[in-house]
Each structure stands twice: as structure tokens, then as C-alpha cells.
Amino acid sequence: GAAGAGGLVAGAAGGAVGASLADGDGSGSGAGSLSLASVGASAVPFHGAQQAGITTPAQARTVLVAYDLEPGADRAKAAALMRRWSDTAARLARGERPDADGQVGLDAGPSSLTVTFAFGATLFDKLGLAGRRPEGLQPLPPFPGDELDASRSDGDLLVQVCTDDALVGFHAVRTLQRLARGTAKVRWQMTGFARSPGATAKPMTHRNLMGQVDGTNNPKPEAPDFAAKIFVGDAGAAGGAAWLRGGSYVVMRRIRMLLDDWDGLDLAAQERVIGRRKDTGAPVTGGEETTPADFGARAANGSLAVAENAHIRVSAPEFNRGATMLRRGYSYHDGFRPDGSPDAGLLFLAWQADPRDGFVPVQQKLARGDALSPFVRHEASGLYVAPPGCPEGGYVGQALLD
Ligand code: HEM
């Protein structure tokens, strides 16, 4: 799954890219005397009860960077890093440039930049905080079919940079990396993309690289139980600790798509795999994109219209004791493999209040019985907890690290 509906739509700012870059909307924040086009001028506040980049509509680009602490980096050094990172991320999100900045930061506005910080289980151990490691941060179990590359998995810290402009994204990544010197070093980095704002005539749910409308049945932020399902609450089994309330667990899976094999299926077979039409994203049982699937419906020959192993039947909350996650993934395309097939797929990112009631049970079922499984390979994996957002003057993770 990837980012999409439920308020997570591309192009919310309107048709700027597709229409005309020259026509700014005049809001021009942080741009000196020139007014920026609307994409550049859009800003997402860094500070708040929750971190930005979770319910924020998916921007056009992401860079995921996992860090490991340098040997000997202690709690005070980690705290100082999180303060430097938070201060700088807040300034970049407003469109300001950090001091002594290079040229790459010039010209563009914040372009909806968000920077989201999360902690891996190993961070707690290395900082002598094993006793405060949240319950939900146990290592993910192995799943059937996993082909995981340890060097591109896990990590003490995860930084998710999202923006509508690739250069703005590079600048943020580079700036944060410089600030980490002496405290943390990059473990792995991955780059992903989605639709650019304005690329479609109206805001739409994203398409993934298999061509499917992806994100339709994400939980909706306006739903009454949304916060309880996605953010750590007061009493949740994985929560409890005050420093974590308003935080969220994120599962990262690098999922390569076997696109040559996928292309070998005809359209009807591809639609059976998911249980939805490719053109509109509507369930195969009829209606529009947002029409609920009729899971009881049968075809003329008596078989289930949404097949027993269709991806949406295997993964839907109603067949997983309510297990819910907010999918906000990005596509990737990193060239070609030795056999000539594309090294492309989905940087799956799923946010939830507790992975044991979200990703884990659903993936356990998908890995065994999903019609999509023959066409995908899980190649990297990580589980991290994003602390709540911080107020101005504070930093992300302060209640844990101070
Ligand atoms: C739904 C694609 C992996 C969980 C969907 C949909 C598509 C899709 C096209 C239907 C539209 C929508 O509601 O978003 C994919 C692809 C994957 C993948 C291409 C891998 C490359 C996963 C994984 C999980 C997952 C690993 C979780 C472990 C879900 C859930 C839904 C969904 C919960 C919504 C089901 C419903 O309530 O209708 N996915 N998905 N997906 N997917 Fe995936």
C-alpha cells in the first residue's frame, strides 16, 4: 500500500506544476522580494502535538535516512543531536536557511518540507535506556518469504524527509547529515517518489508502480477512532509512558515489485489479485473508488467476487480483528538488476499506535495467503517509534532524553 485517499491526496495545493510555474500565488513566504509559485511557498509547520510527515498529505519526494550512533555517543550527545536536528528542521520547514549554508539552499521555498524523526530499538540499548524501551518496539518477527538485507534494514534513528522539490529534499538531508557528525553516521539511505502536486487535473489518490490506485481505504483522519489507531494514547499496551503519548510506530519495508512477471498477467487477472479495478480503483464488486467492497458478493459461477486471496480481503481491518495502519509509502526506482528487470517497487511506510495490532498480524496473513505475494519481495525492514511532536523551543524526544 502507499499514500493516497483519506485526505492523503496528491496535489492538494492545486494545479501549480501542471499549470504554470510562473504564476505565483503571491503568498511568497521566505522568498525575499520574489513571490514563489504555490508549490514552493507551501509550508508545513514543524511544531505541534504530533510530528509532521505522518498525516501530512504525501509530498512528491521522500528521502529516508537511517543512522547509527557513533561508538561512545551517550545520552547527552544524542539529546544535543536531537535538539540541533529539531531546531534546524523547524527553520527549514519555515523556508529559512541555516547559518553558513551552501548554495543548494538558495531560491526555493519550503515546498511542504517535513522532517520526521523516529527511534529504533537499538537506540534505547545503546543509550542505557533499555528499561524505557516501549513494548511495541520488539523486533518484527520473520515473515515467510522475507529476503531481507540487514545492511539496508533497522538503524538507531530514522529520519524521513518529505518535500515537493527534490533539491529542497537534498538540502535538508545534507544539512541534517552535517549536524550529525561525531554523533551518528548514516547506515542506509533510500529515495522515493509520488505524484507531484498539480500533475493531475484534480487531487487524486496515488498510483503505485504496478499501476494500481493505492491508498483508497486508508483510515480517514476525520474518523472517530483515527487518533487511537494511529497515535500512541494514554493507556495503550504499547504506550503508557508519558514521553511517547502522541507518538506513532512506523514500519518500513522495501518491497521490490516483480514488474516483468506482473506485466505477464492480463488486466482481469491483475484486478483479481487486488480485488479492485485498475482504472478507477473501485472494488471489483462495483461502484466508485470509495464504494465499500461487497465481500459477500458471488460471481455467476458461485465463486467469491472478491477472491479469497485478494489483497484487500486478506488485509482489510474487518478480517484482521480491526488491525489498522496508515499507509504512507513512496515508489522507488533504483535502476536495473543483473537480469535486466527493474529494481523498483514500494518503500512501504505504515504508521500505527501499536505494530502488534497493526502491521504484524496483517503481514503474517499476507505473507501466507496474499495473491500479490508472488509479485513482490520484501528486501529491507525496519521498525521505529516516532516520539510526539515538540513545541517551539523544545526538541523531538526531549521527554525521553533530557
Ligand atoms: C490495500 C497495493 C503491500 C496493507 C491496497 C490496495 C492496493 C495495495 C492497490 C487497494 C487500495 C487501497 O485501499 O489502498 C499494495 C502493494 C503492495 C502492498 C502493491 C506491495 C508492493 C501491503 C502490505 C500491507 C498492506 C505489506 C500490510 C502489511 C494493505 C491494507 C489495505 C491495502 C491494510 C487496505 C485494505 C482495505 O481495508 O480495503 N494495497 N499493497 N499492503 N493494503 Fe496493500
Write the H/E string, N to C.
Answer: HHEHEHEHEHEHHHEEEHEH
Ligand inventory reads: protoporphyrin IX containing FE
Q: Give the N-to-C terminal Cα separation.
A: 37 Å
Helix content: 10-25%
Inertia-based shape:
globular
- The beta-strand count equals 9
Give the uncertain stretches in residue-range form: 1-33
**Strand-pairing-aware structural class:** alpha+beta
Total helix count? Answer: 11
Percent of residues in β-strands: 15-25%
User: What kind of sheet is the major sheet?
Assistant: 9 strands, antiparallel
Mean pLDDT figure = 90
Gyration radius, in Å:
21 Å
SSE topology:
Layout: H1 16-19, H2 38-41, E1 61-69, H3 75-94, E2 114-120, H4 121-126, E3 157-163, H5 166-180, E4 184-193, H6 226-230, E5 248-257, H7 259-263, H8 267-274, H9 311-315, E6 326-327, E7 330-336, E8 342-352, H10 359-369, E9 376-386, H11 398-401
Antiparallel strand pairs: 1-3, 1-4, 2-3, 2-9, 5-8, 5-9, 6-8, 7-8
Helix pairs in contact: 3-5
The protein binds protoporphyrin IX containing FE (HEM).
Keywords: Heme, Iron, Lyase, Metal-binding, Oxidoreductase, Peroxidase, Signal
Domain Dyp-type peroxidase N-terminal: 51-193
Main location: other
